């Protein structure tokens, strides 16, 4: 797979995960950055793929990947936005 992907889930009881996912997609949409949303609730293989790319067997969405390069999780994403280094974080610069 190539391009920017945001691993998310449409099935979660966690308000925190829902909130983090929507903030990531809102910021990307606002900056007109194209990405593919990957819903890990549709297939356990996608969840395993997300965790393998993140290098963390307990990783939870949202996780951001560009091609086969892991960019980071929600906390790192927000930090990049605050430091105005989002394009570098997303490996787009």
UniProtKB/TrEMBL annotation:
GO CC term, one of those recorded: ruffle membrane
Keywords, in A-Z order: Acetylation, Cell membrane, Cell projection, Cytoplasm, Glycoprotein, Membrane, Nucleus
Biological process (GO), any one: cytoskeleton organization
The organism's place on the tree of life at top rank: Eukaryota
This protein's record includes keyword Metal-binding: no
One Pfam family here: SH3BGR
Coiled-coil spans in chain: none
InterPro entries cross-referenced by the UniProt entry: Glut_rich_SH3-bd, SH3BGR, Thioredoxin-like_sf
Presence of keyword Glycoprotein: yes
Main location: membrane
Intracellular or extracellular location(s): Cell projection, Ruffle membrane; Cytoplasm, Cytosol; Nucleus
Record function comment: Could act as a modulator of glutaredoxin biological activity. May play a role in cytoskeleton organization.
Assigned protein family: Belongs to the SH3BGR family.
Name of the protein in its database record: SH3 domain-binding glutamic acid-rich-like protein 3
The species this protein was found in: Myotis lucifugus (Little brown bat)
